């Protein structure tokens, strides 16, 4: 009886590992891409208006999947360039806290201030 219950748990641990592994791979790819050309700095149109603290959080926690210009790197739903026209501040904050689909929730790893800062900034992207 207990054995049956164990299978979905193992499967979900496995998929969490896959997501983490993917994020690490994406980060490494980003680092390699950035390190490649010293002079070829790409201007990020969509990131430059972010308050510096918000930009720092975005770069360390969101950029892997959402890209250095909010363009999205893991599918159409990850393009955030106009997310403010689809989602309110509250909806964005809820998604950052709880996650959705392949996106992990950040309620435990980001402060309320950080989540609010990200949400406020993203809500202006229309
Ligand atoms: C592991 C990859 C990953 C990371 C890291 C990640 N996201 Fe996402 N995010 C996704 C995916 C995948 C979706 C699409 C989810 C869906 O609708 O199925 C998404 C969707 C979103 C959406 C909703 C977009 C829409 O139009 O529906 C917002 C807002 C968002 N992410 C913000 C963030 C923020 C802010 C961070 C950093 C704190 C972050 N994400 C980190 C993968 C990620």
Automatic annotation (TrEMBL):
<dbReference type="GO" id="GO:0046872">
    <property type="term" value="F:metal ion binding"/>
</dbReference>
<dbReference type="InterPro" id="IPR051811">
    <property type="entry name" value="Cytochrome_c550/c551-like"/>
</dbReference>
<keyword id="KW-0408">Iron</keyword>
<dbReference type="InterPro" id="IPR036909">
    <property type="entry name" value="Cyt_c-like_dom_sf"/>
</dbReference>
<keyword id="KW-0349">Heme</keyword>
<protein>
    <submittedName>
        <fullName>Cytochrome c</fullName>
    </submittedName>
</protein>
<dbReference type="GO" id="GO:0009055">
    <property type="term" value="F:electron transfer activity"/>
</dbReference>
<keyword id="KW-0813">Transport</keyword>
<dbReference type="InterPro" id="IPR009056">
    <property type="entry name" value="Cyt_c-like_dom"/>
</dbReference>
<keyword id="KW-0249">Electron transport</keyword>
<feature type="domain" description="Cytochrome c">
    <location>
        <begin position="49"/>
        <end position="126"/>
    </location>
</feature>
<dbReference type="Pfam" id="PF13442">
    <property type="entry name" value="Cytochrome_CBB3"/>
</dbReference>
<keyword id="KW-0479">Metal-binding</keyword>
<dbReference type="GO" id="GO:0020037">
    <property type="term" value="F:heme binding"/>
</dbReference>
């Amino acid at each position: 009886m207990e054995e049956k219950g164990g299978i979905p748990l193992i499967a979900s641990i496995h998929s969490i590992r896959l997501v983490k592994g993917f994020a690490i791979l994406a980060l490494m790819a980003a680092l390699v891409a950035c390190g490649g050309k010293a002079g070829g700095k790409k201007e990020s149109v969509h990131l430059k208006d972010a308050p510096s603290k918000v930009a720092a959080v975005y770069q360390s926690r969101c950029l892997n999947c959402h890209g250095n210009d909010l363009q999205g790197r893991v599918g159409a739903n990850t393009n955030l360039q106009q997310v403010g026209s689809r989602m309110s501040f509250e909806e964005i904050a809820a998604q950052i806290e709880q996650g959705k689909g392949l996106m992990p929730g950040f309620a435990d790893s980001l402060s309320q201030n950080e989540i609010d800062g990200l949400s406020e900034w993203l809500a202006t992207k229309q």
